[in-house]
Design goal:
Largest interface: A-B, 40 and 39 residues
Structural class of chain A: alpha/beta
Strand content of chain A: 15-25%
CATH superfamily of the largest domain in chain A: Response regulator
Number of strands of chain A: 12
Largest sheet of chain A: 6 strands, parallel
Helix content of chain A: 40-55%
Distance between the termini of chain A: 64 Å
Shape of chain A: elongated
CATH architecture of the largest domain in chain A: 3-Layer(aba) Sandwich
Number of helices of chain A: 13
Oligomer: homodimer
Chain lengths: ~350, ~350
DNA sequence: AAATTTTGCAAAATCGTTTTAGAAGTGTAA
DNA sequence: TTACACTTCTAAAACGATTTTGCAAAATTT
């Protein structure tokens, strides 16, 4: 079945295709198309089942009304929720979102940027993987609208919105101290991204503030590329080798989940044998007895702010670029695990 | 910064744009372009940072190399995994995937189809919401490549791939019977979609096979639009009002999760007070003590098959449409909850 | 040497829109 | 009667690629 184009409609209605375009875009008045013709065109278009070809529109107008969202891993609930919220938010502005995952792999990230460029997205929302500085810098230089989320690149002049990672960890640590925990291990990931570093900084800062000597043995950096099993083993070893530990702080939700598995295998009980707190909330944390205390990021606020910043860059055609750095505050959700 | 087009390259290299196109598409040999010119063009394109405008290509060639995937809810792990696998699979064929959720709302589904049509996707992968028959039938009539996933519409002549729902539930029931459970409640959702009906059929069939009288009081159909809290309450009431129940069968993973919450609140213990089994696997089911027995769909196989069927329709330009119905087998994962 | 074929590239059409410039036709005033 | 202003629409260019066709020059054959 052949698709019906604006030309076909024009022919059927006995007018020029420009006339059809005017009518269909609600510019009939502005272009002084008579009501008779307007009605006829509208009717013909409706009965013929006409719908515009978005590709042609984008090509002609130079605007695809599409945003590119690059996250670390769309399978993770944090990014999935972020993506969904961003999508809903972008819809308000009349934009669609196409999303894709880097898996924290810079070369995949590079490909994705290039793919999105080819598809002429109007703007980019990116949670940058390590070593993506250059590619992102290039986007910025080409004056493409870009907003970084969840992390930023000190070397790149781009707007970004993230959470006050160090302060949030601090808050979590204060809670642990208040509950009487002193021997707190920190499980993080071996990734060179700013928000992970900030979380570690928060941990270190909190210890020193409390006058506790830093013990590097109870800081575990799990290689990002490790398999599930290996990671679970690493955490289990940490616990076995450091029986003095009374609490464990996980730097991300998937680490927390792995940790639960480790604790489970060691037949330790939460919070009696070990207290647990994790960055990023998760269904499991709410449900898993006795409930895992976590630090919840304001995903919705992050999404809204990021989209707003991006829209600002997209719609203001003038080159009035001003970098904006937004920091939102995370929220401590206290549950039975501490 | 102005984007560089094929014309710019042509001008810079002192050739016609057609020549550039030939070179860049590897047709230099076929079109008998001299090596000198080829080298020059390639060099110019490289240094100018040229990349093709996918919109223009799609418009001209009539192929967008993009598939539309419509799922129920991309936030659900089952659909998220499905989407991701489909994406990876489609990539093998050189296709991109854009995905979106219906939230089981037919009018949203209609909009999504129309949006995807406007964007000229080459094919559609759809988990149809109730009442989407008409819109999908239209796609089929327009000869658009379509494959339904996870469910199908009896009234629509479209290829589909799903799991043997009834048989899988049957298998789960057999497992429960073998473990000695007899009073088995069934928690499902109030949705008119075929796979949900099939699951209920499986439950009813298993009971009659075992010679157990059907008790409608222990079949709970939760309205899809219910809030979390209401649903949890409903399940809790079911348990409270039917103390004879020794097992609960949940028809989907999110129902299972709600059920865990209910059981948790009633301070009942699994499997001593109540055994639990759920359709669709989930991280939580693996982790939640004592581990929740579940019926795992072969997501990867479903994705592969669906994409293969769709590709078949996309690439075979001739109208050799033959409807294919594929049924794959789900797998029972026995854990501590039964 | 003339005729033919091959080589190597350019020109132009095309995809489906939007948008600018302007062409008829009608009415009005000088 | 002419000039001018509206009204109502049309023609054509443009967006950035692909692809078919065309055509001069060089090479080969007769």
């Amino acid at each position: 079945m052949k698709k019906v184009s604006i030309k076909d409609i024009a022919q059927m209605a006995g007018v020029a295709s420009s006339t059809v375009s005017f009518v269909l875009n609600g510019k009939a008045r502005k272009m002084r198309i008579s009501e008779t013709v307007e009605k006829r065109v509208l009717e013909v278009a409706r009965t013929a089942g006409y719908y515009p070809n978005q590709l042609a529109i984008s090509l002609r107008t130079g605007k695809s009304k599409t945003l590119g969202l690059i996250v670390e891993n769309i399978g993770n609930i944090f990014f999935a929720t972020l993506a969904k919220t961003i999508e809903e938010e972008a819809e308000q502005y009349g934009y669609r979102v196409v999303y894709c995952s880097t898996e924290n792999n810079a070369s995949k990230g590079k490909e994705l940027i290039s793919m999105l460029s080819q598809r002429q997205v109007d703007g980019y929302l990116i949670t940058p993987a390590p070593h993506m500085e250059e590619d992102i810098q290039q986007l910025v230089q080409l004056q493409r609208p870009v907003v970084l989320i969840d992390r930023y690149l000190p070397a790149v002049e781009a707007s970004h919105v993230l959470v006050n990672n160090a302060e949030a960890v601090n808050q979590g640590m204060s809670h642990l101290f208040a509950q009487g925990y002193r021997e707190i291990g920190f499980v993080t990931v071996d990734l060179d991204v700013i928000q992970i570093e900030q979380r570690l900084d928060g941990y270190i800062g909190a210890l020193s503030r409390e006058g506790i000597r830093l013990n590097k043995d109870i800081i575990l950096k799990i290689p990002y590329t490790h398999q599930r099993e290996d990671a679970i083993e690493l955490i289990a070893s940490l616990l076995k080798n450091n029986p003095q530990l009374d609490a464990l702080f996980f730097a991300t939700n998937y680490l927390g989940i792995l940790g639960l598995e480790s604790i489970n295998r060691l037949k330790m009980s939460i919070p009696d044998d070990i207290a647990v707190i994790s960055f990023d909330d998760h269904d499991i944390f709410r449900l898993y007895p006795p409930g895992i205390t976590s630090i919840q990021q304001p995903v919705e606020a992050i999404a809204k702010k990021a989209v707003a910043l991006l829209m600002d860059q997209c719609e203001n055609t003038e080159i009035k670029f001003d970098k904006r750095e937004v920091e939102l505050t995370a929220k401590l959700i206290v549950r039975g695990s501490t």
